């Protein structure tokens, strides 16, 4: 078996004049969850499309389970499951009918299809709605059905493009449990997300993409510690957050920040000092120093 489930080296992709990926390098070990974070338009979907052979890269290489995404497309396709935001579910069919149909299309016999459908309905908590048409489903049920359909044939690597976008907190947590169970079964999972908490909860490794490059990667804890020391929050007496300023955690920096803020904030402002969150990591890594000081200026003006 090759060392990594996913290996990307020097990957570049442009659309016309728009250089979207400017030389990406990353590796994802077998049986782990990798989360790719980045602002809108950073190239997350483009990367998933390249890794799943839907788009060709301009330069560089990418391997899935050891297979090259350009030269060994067939083997790559046989190694992956892909769930986007719009999976191939027929709205007028029930989840049971959808799964049975897709099982048959995947080459399973009638008896195997029945068995696999039962198993997937149970695994994705869809048994109670298995006879209801998919168009009547909530967002969470629909997303679980999308995922079940994409996992009819068990493959070692799963790509999830924003799997919980638009879901409420309960449905999101239910899907997280399913994703963690898939990891326990040995699957390697590559997901993109807009939710920093999602990356924090699920991922073994998080990478942040910005300006066409991976600007940071590591565990959630490593990324948080990179942002530096403590964050000082300033709250008014109506419990509204007035400002949240990252500091090095050192006495001089904390004192300077307090001095700066005292000039503009009311005397009854309350101060809360906390450790950096994934939100702070994201802001720090995807916002230029000029933007950050402009924000501080805005609070002070
Ligand atoms: N087929 C295409 N033709 C031309 N431009 C494209 C194409 N696909 C993507 N782009 C452009 O590439 C850039 C990256 O898009 P992509 O969808 O990969 O970003 P993303 O990080 O997934 O964003 P989001 O979080 O908004 O989904 C965008 O500027 C987009 O307009």
Automatic annotation (TrEMBL):
Entries under SMART domains matching the protein: AAA
Pfam families, per the entry: ABC_tran
Span of domain ABC transporter: 6-236
Record keyword Ubl conjugation present: no
InterPro entries the record matches: AAA+_ATPase (IPR003593), ABC_transporter-like_ATP-bd (IPR003439), ABC_transporter-like_CS (IPR017871), ABC_transporter_ATP-binding (IPR050763), DrrA (IPR005894), P-loop_NTPase (IPR027417)
Keyword ATP-binding among record annotations: yes
GO CC terms of this entry: plasma membrane
Primary location: membrane
Keywords from the UniProt entry: ATP-binding, Cell membrane, Membrane, Nucleotide-binding, Translocase, Transport
Locations listed in the record: Cell membrane
PANTHER family: ABC TRANSPORTER ATP-BINDING PROTEIN (PTHR42711), DOXORUBICIN RESISTANCE ATP-BINDING PROTEIN DRRA (PTHR42711:SF19)
This protein's name: ATP-binding cassette domain-containing protein
Lineage: Bacteria, Bacillati, Bacillota, Bacilli, Bacillales
């Amino acid at each position: 078996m090759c060392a990594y489930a996913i290996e990307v080296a020097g990957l570049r992709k442009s659309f016309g004049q728009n250089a979207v990926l400017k030389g990406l390098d990353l590796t994802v070990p077998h049986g782990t969850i990798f989360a790719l974070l980045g602002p809108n338009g950073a190239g997350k979907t483009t990367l998933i499309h390249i890794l799943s052979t839907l788009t060709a890269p301009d330069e560089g290489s990418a391997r899935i389970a050891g297979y090259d995404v350009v030269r060994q497309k067939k083997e790559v396709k046989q190694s992956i499951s892909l769930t986007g935001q719009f999976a191939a579910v027929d709205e007028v069919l029930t989840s049971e009918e959808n799964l049975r149909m897709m099982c048959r299309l995947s080459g399973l016999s009638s008896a195997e299809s029945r068995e696999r459908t039962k198993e997937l309905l149970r695994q994705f908590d869809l048994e109670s709605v298995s006879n209801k048409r998919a168009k009547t489903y909530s967002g969470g049920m629909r997303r679980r059905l999308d995922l079940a359909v994409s996992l009819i044939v068990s493959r070692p690597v799963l790509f999830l493009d924003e799997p919980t976008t638009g879901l409420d907190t309960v449905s999101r947590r239910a899907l997280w449990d399913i994703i963690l169970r898939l990891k326990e079964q040995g699957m390697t999972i590559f997901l993109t997300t807009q939710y920093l908490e999602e990356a924090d909860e699920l991922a073994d490794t998080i990478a942040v993409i910005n300006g066409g490059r991976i600007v940071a990667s590591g565990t959630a804890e490593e990324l948080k510690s990179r942002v530096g020391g403590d964050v000082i929050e300033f709250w008014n007496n109506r419990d509204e957050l007035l400002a949240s300023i990252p500091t090095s955690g050192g006495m001089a920096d904390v004192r300077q920040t307090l001095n700066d803020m005292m000039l503009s904030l009311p005397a009854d402002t309350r101060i809360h000092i906390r450790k950096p969150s994934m939100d702070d990591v994201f802001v720090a890594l995807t916002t230029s120093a000029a933007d950050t000081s402009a924000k501080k200026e805005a609070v002070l003006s």
